[in-house]
Amino acid sequence: MHGLLRAAVTALLLCSSPLLFASSVYRCVASDGRITFTRHGCPTDQQQQLQNAFNASPGNGRPTPMANDTPERTARTTKQSNPQEPTIVGQQDDGCGNRITDRERREAIIKKEVRPGMTRTDVDSAFGKPDKISSRNGRTSYQYRDNAGNTRQIDFDEHNCVGIKGGK
């Protein structure tokens, strides 16, 4: 009996429909008409529409369906003078406005440097646990002391990001 059930399940998996491999994506329309597609949802200031995406296998002889165009979309009548910046979909936000690149972040951690835009987690990775943590007006400061008695203070803003020295 178990062998028959196992054979039925195996046959079902081998003969499964390609529609089972379809996924859903969000179609995001910005106020200026730009359209982006993402699996992570749209920002709150954009219109969001759920769409099914189907990744057809190559060479199956059937055309791949495209996303349906919405009726409220209008044709552009003005030509843009500047090429539009590409929209990055699904980019990870570090919470500090992505002020430094991943490469700069890694280099700073390895060299034990502090750069504006680093998060508290980045500083923890570079220097370890602080000797003293103080908090004032929503801002946090870490203090580190080395073996020679020198101290280093690192200040974080209300978003737990290293700020620019002398600025806000």
Automatic annotation (TrEMBL):
Signal peptide positions (record): 1-22
Residue stretches spanning the membrane: none
Pfam families tied to this protein: DUF4124
Location of the region described as Disordered in the Swiss-Prot/TrEMBL record: 53-99
Keywords: Signal
Segments forming domain DUF4124: 12-49
Alphabetized InterPro entries for the sequence: DUF4124
Protein name: DUF4124 domain-containing protein
Lineage, broadest ranks: Bacteria, Pseudomonadati, Pseudomonadota, Gammaproteobacteria, Pseudomonadales
